[in-house]
Amino acid sequence: MAKTYDIVIDGKTCSAEHGEYLWDVAKRNGIEIPALCRSEAFPEHRASCRVCIVEVVARGRSKVVTSCVYPIEGECEVRTNSPKIVQDRKVLMALLAARAPESDLMAAMATHMGAGESYERLEPLDAGKCILCGLCVQACESMGTGAISTVNRGVDKE
Q: For the whole model, what pTM was predicted?
């Protein structure tokens, strides 16, 4: 039997198993954390969009983590909408909206998160609607075809 911990997410005490991902604990307890690159259809999560960031306070230290791949390893406090996280998500959404200038979803999410007009200096990339989340690659791999993939890393990824 796996060890369990009591963690606090936005003031709500939740039970979590050792190694369970923070995003899953939050979802199970009715706490919404936004995510774009995560699908229940795939057991592996790549954390490529980073929209699911949260602030974790453990042992007196605070850090920003990607909740969909952050394993619970002890008791902690989690803040899903602290001022720092809200600001960091605005930047992330502005960058994703600039990467996918033709995506109505990205534009709507950026506006909803307050990233609409404040980041006009970002030049849109010529990338259409793709944010390089990798879900299409995972779907293709799961079918055994491997016809779709990403190439390069970092800012050169396409």
A: 0.83
